[in-house]
Specification:
single chain, alpha+beta, four-stranded mixed beta sheet, about 30% helix, 9 strands, three-stranded antiparallel beta sheet
């Protein structure tokens, strides 16, 4: 599959006040959720990991695990607290990536994605003519396994980026393994049932998205509708601007931001793994 050249950075187009090129405009056959103002908010369940570390026979544990199972069977998306990362630490992560995107184009381009690659700063790859592009610049980095890391794409500016990013990724990996253990217990499986299937060398990538001001918000999408192909996706939402939407029972809903929480989405790979284990799917996809 060939990859064609990338367009001008979205951040540049927005800053210069230019009219977005036609490749950014949503086509008639594209799933479109609409403006956030016209979309109802959904109450995403908040799961407290501290309660799920209690004695399984306790009422608090039973209530929390039942709440988790309810959301996994209906949507597969929930907010998690009690994850061990303070609000100030999460704010440090938000500020770190903001500082990166505020750098000059020339500085950011030092870590730019190459034409035939995925990692680095820039736009997503373009595979075919007429592909609808997302109104989004991103920084995509591999964080694990160690021998798959490409440090040439890891920014050296801001100066503390690499150390903070590595620490954050390690915390998210620990959180993911904790969730896999909880999922296994919820299905009366051994604690390591899912983690053994996944193995020790599962690819972990981090993606930081920037959505600049868009002059055509009713005709352009920040990110097109999609399902996560991952095992688990952990999302740190912007604290100031809400924009995430989820599709539930054929209707789009806006997801409110909880500053001290992390949003968890059960990915396609984990759902497929449940079939092998003959475990009922977490989500009702009808």
């Amino acid at each position: 599959m060939s990859i064609v050249g990338a367009p001008k950075r979205v951040q540049e187009i927005s800053a210069e006040g230019e009219e977005p090129p036609p490749e950014f405009f949503v086509k008639k056959d594209t799933i479109f959720a609409g403006n956030l103002g016209s979309v109802s908010s959904i109450q995403i369940p908040i799961i407290d990991l501290n309660l799920l570390s209690l004695n399984p026979n306790s009422e608090a544990y039973k209530d929390e695990i039942n709440k988790l199972l309810d959301t996994l069977s209906s949507c597969g998306v929930f907010q998690v607290i009690g994850h061990g990362m303070s609000s100030s630490y999460l704010e440090e992560i938000r500020n770190l990536i903001k500082k990166f995107f505020c750098l000059s184009i020339e500085e950011k381009q030092k870590y730019g994605r190459v034409a035939d690659g995925y990692e680095g700063y820039g736009n997503d790859p373009i595979f075919v003519e007429g592909q609808v592009l997302d109104w989004c610049d991103r920084l995509l980095l591999t964080a694990y396994p160690q021998d798959q890391i490409n440090l040439q794409f890891w920014p050296q500016n801001p100066p503390n980026f690499r150390n903070v990013f590595e620490e954050y990724c390690n915390k998210v990996i620990i959180l993911t393994r904790t969730l896999l253990k909880i999922f296994a217990r919820s299905q009366n499986l051994e604690d390591d049932a899912f983690s053994k299937e996944i193995g020790e060398r599962t690819l972990v990538q981090a993606r930081f998205n920037l959505y600049p001001k868009c002059p055509k918000p009713d005709k352009i999408l920040g990110v097109k509708a999609h399902a996560d192909a991952s095992i688990i996706t952990t999302l740190l939402q912007d604290k100031e601007v809400e924009g995430l939407q989820v599709l539930k029972y054929g209707k789009w809903y806006g997801v409110p931001t909880i500053p001290h929480a992390l949003l968890i989405n059960v990915g396609d790979q984990l759902e497929e793994g449940l079939v092998k284990w003959k475990v009922p799917p977490f989500r009702d996809l009808n």
